[in-house]
Each structure stands twice: as structure tokens, then as C-alpha cells.
Amino acid sequence: MKKMQEITNLFSTINSHTDNDWVYTNLEKWEAHPESAIFYLISEDEIDDLEEDDKTVENSAGELIPKSLAKENVETWLDVQTLLAIFEIIQKKVKAPDEDILIRAINHYREFDDFMKA
């Protein structure tokens, strides 16, 4: 599990991860102040291993999360593959997208299940 703060740090970290990794965050905090959201990158294999060791709990959405994150109220947010696709589409028009455009692109995808036109 990796912990990241700020959306730009998240995008610089996910490039080295596989498609079966998920990003978790506190959705209420994301919706209120996305620029200060904290993200956790967790693979499905890691969740499986933690579950075998009885180190998971069920969150409010019925998902298994590490016990260490129980008080953070995190839920699955997006998978790495989707985040990379969002970033690639934005980069076609903006070589170095800033935090604001990345947040808008992610929120657009989450709301419309479609990529924002760059």
C-alpha cells in the first residue's frame, strides 16, 4: 500500500503500477476539497493477502479495506488503468497538466462515465 497526497503525486506514482491496482480515498473529502485528498494505492493481491491474515474490515460501501484505514473512511475511487487513460487524454492537449485540470477531468469521468475532451 502506498499513501499519496495531492493529485499530481498520485499521477507520478501510478505509472509504475499494474492494472489490478485500485486507488482508495475518502469520497466526502474528495468532493469537498479534492486538492487536499489523500490517496491509497492498493492492489487486489494485497487486499487478498490482508484478508487471509484477518487484517481487513468492511467499509461503509461493503468493500474490504485494510484495518489500518478503517478510521479514514476510504472507498474505492478509481482503478489505475482508468486514471492513466484520463491522464493520457488530457496530455494530448496539455503537455504538463496542472492539478486543476486533472481534478476536472477526473470529476468529469466520475460523473459522466466518459472522458473529458482536452
Descriptive account of the structure:
The protein is of the alpha+beta class. The chain has one domain (about 1-110). It is about 40% helix and about 20% strand. It has helices at about 5-15, 25-30, 45-50, 80-90, 100-110, and strands at about 1-5, 20-25, 40-45, 55-60, 65, 75-80. The strands form two sheets. Strands 1-3-2-6 form a four-stranded antiparallel sheet. It has a two-stranded antiparallel ribbon with strand order 4-5. Helix 4 crosses helix 5 (about 100-110). The chain is globular and about 45 Å long. The N and C termini lie far apart (about 30 Å). The mean pLDDT is about 95.
Structural Rg: 14 Å
Could you tell me the strand content as a percent range? 15-25%
Count of extended strands: 6
What is the number of helices?
Answer: 5
The arrangement of helices and strands along the chain is EHEHEHEEEHH
Strand line-up in the sheet with most strands: 1-3-2-6
- In round numbers, the mean pLDDT is 94
Question: Uncertain spans, ≥5 residues at pLDDT below 50?
Answer: none
Q: Characterize the biggest β-sheet.
A: 4 strands, antiparallel
Query: Structural class from helices and strands?
Result: alpha+beta
Count of distinct structural domains: 1
